[in-house]
Amino acid sequence: MAQVEESVARHVASVDRAVAVLDVLAQSQSDLGTNEIARRTQINASSVSRLLATLARRGLVAHVAETGRYRLGLRLLELGNAALSRIDLRDVARPHLHELAELTGETVTLSVPGELEAVTMDFVASDSFVQSVARLGRPSVAHATAIGKVFLAFGGKLPDGPLVAYTERTITHRKKVAEEVDSTARRGWAQAVGEREIGLNALAAPIIDGQSALKGILGVQGPAGRFGRQAMRSAIAPLLSSANAISRIWTG
Amino acid sequence: MAQVEESVARHVASVDRAVAVLDVLAQSQSDLGTNEIARRTQINASSVSRLLATLARRGLVAHVAETGRYRLGLRLLELGNAALSRIDLRDVARPHLHELAELTGETVTLSVPGELEAVTMDFVASDSFVQSVARLGRPSVAHATAIGKVFLAFGGKLPDGPLVAYTERTITHRKKVAEEVDSTARRGWAQAVGEREIGLNALAAPIIDGQSALKGILGVQGPAGRFGRQAMRSAIAPLLSSANAISRIWTG
DNA sequence: CACGGTGTTGCCCATAAGGCAACAAGCGAA
DNA sequence: TTCGCTTGTTGCCTTATGGGCAACACCGTG
Question: 20 to 30 A from A44, CA-CA: which of A79, A218, A235, A250?
Fold first, then answer.
């Protein structure tokens, strides 16, 4: 809880009431009249009327002339978009990265989709001495990594030319890559087993907004000796859970 | 201008100040400190501090502990999404439909993309006695209408089976339809010249959100005798202008 | 260490805001 | 058409609130 909120700071009651009015309008599926808002907020109707007039003038609330009722105003959308544009995905995701690293015992990465590939922008390293090292700024190899397969599943493109075989397990046939990408899209997560590097296993899940646009990719990776079939299977649910929690920035 | 705002209603100055603080944070590209907000709003720093404390407690503002500065809070995103979910596209678009109908002298329609086609949900009829009649709920024929071509350009699918030739000008070869759809995507608007009906010409432009997802389609249509090559060309810019103005609901 | 700026909070006082009452308007039922 | 009820607004009064001053703690820089 923020320190500011816990202090004995004096609050502005009128602002509290105004926000309570906004909250009630947000909770309601339909427009509300002054008296109904007064009932739900336990604020006198004349006070509510004046609060609404002020909020309406500033665009946070809209008065519907036909019905005399009120609804949330478009200025809130503008303010919400402004709030969104300042969010640092890393800040929001970081607690989830820590939690997932703790749960799985492996290195957890956060990538963002770029133009040609997804790029690692944050990670929480495994506590183990033997760990899969992540590096910031490192692009993924789309066809050979779990992160890359999620990237492809959301419209990312493979580069032209032959696909490099990093290990014997690397999928280099474009048709088989496409099938792998289809699998990723269908089940909502990707895996790579010794495809980018011998002995390196990984899982990845998309972080999406309300329109299913890719905003980030959450990955878990570890050495095959520890992060094998069983451990990978166990990591899927928490991975999806964390990715969904992060996605809730956009979906509410 | 809303009647409520024009009355001699008494406003709540504290709420006005609080919103002024939100506005300043929205305008700024970076986090702001208490004193900076005080300077920009001409409100005493101690008042700003107390307003911020209240807004922070309600989540409309977030205090960044590392820097001591403030930014817009995630609750605004929730409120913005709630506001958005109650918006009726028709209400927002209607003034633009009227304006466009006035500018072009033709019938203007608003459609929303459905599962299999786009459906007319509002229109403003031309003032002319000779006009292209629109009907609410009428689905578009994707391959033969301007509205439909925009729908296809944003991922809509053609139905299976042969494409019906409504006139001699209807494009029924799937490859040519695809080319037409590509043109639509590239230039940002579609046209249909006597393809759905002899003597009926139309233009259409997409209404999109911040992620380029299709939220609606704005169309102009008229009889070829009046809405011919020259008039259509003249209607493109105002059509795009109106579609963009409506799109700003989502993009700010 | 000194200085300047930031951010918060105690305190005082003027006024803003809450709420009561009155009023106008609208709606539904008789 | 009339009546009763509810809604929404506004005049007005009272008082509690909130604005702002001053003081303080903290921080960064020279």
Answer: A79
Rounded CA-CA distance B24/B31 in Å is 10
Distance B25 CA to C7 C1' (A): 17
Q: Please tell me whether any atom of strand C lies within 7 Å of the Cβ of B54.
A: no
* Best CA proximity match to B146, nearest among B86, B93, B191, B116: B191
Q: Is the pLDDT of residue A4 over 70?
A: no
Q: What pLDDT does A127 receive?
A: 79
Q: Does domain A87-251 have CATH number 3.30.450.40?
A: yes
Residue A8 confidence class, pLDDT cut points 50, 70, 90: low
Beta bridge partners of A193: A201
A59-72: string of b/e by CB count within 10 Å (b at 16+)?
bbbbbeeeeebbbb
Tell the CATH topology of A3-83.
Arc Repressor Mutant, subunit A (1.10.10)
Residues 6+ apart with CB under 8 A from A8: none
Say how far apart CA A88 and CA B76 lie, in whole Å: 16
pLDDT per position as a tens digit, B98-142: 999 999 999 999 998 887 788 888 888 887 777 777 777 777 788
CB pairs under 8 A between A and B: 167
